[in-house]
Amino acid sequence: MTSPMKAETKSREVKNANERRSQQHLRGAIDNSNRHCIVPSLHAPPPLTPTHASVAS
Questions:
Q1: pTM of this prediction?
Q2: How remote is the C-alpha of 51 from its chain's centroid?
Q3: By CB atoms within 10 Å of each CB, which of 20, 32, 38, 48 scores lowest?
Q4: Phi, psi angle pair for 46, to nearest 5°
């Protein structure tokens, strides 16, 4: 049987891990939304060199 003290620290560790994971998830979501905003504007103008079109055809 584990002592209450050990159980306490265990639950605190789990809580910290969960918080860290949710923080990373939030940060990833923000990065993704930023990327979605930036990428279309980068790819909106047609490429200056038509090499991609010639390769595709």
A1: 0.35
A2: 33
A3: 48
A4: -65, 150
How far apart CA 23 and CA 29 sit, in angstroms, is: 10
How far from each other are the two terminal CA atoms of the chain, in whole angstroms? 71
| Phi (first) and psi of residue 2, to 5 degrees | -80, 150
Nearest to 26 by CA among 36, 38, 18: 18
Decide if pLDDT at 28 tops 70.
no
Query: What's the Rg (C-alpha) of the chain?
Result: 24
User: For residue 10, what are the contacts with CB-CB under 8 A and spacing of at least 6?
Assistant: 2
Q: What's the pLDDT at 51?
A: 62
Location of structure tokens 């265990």: 10
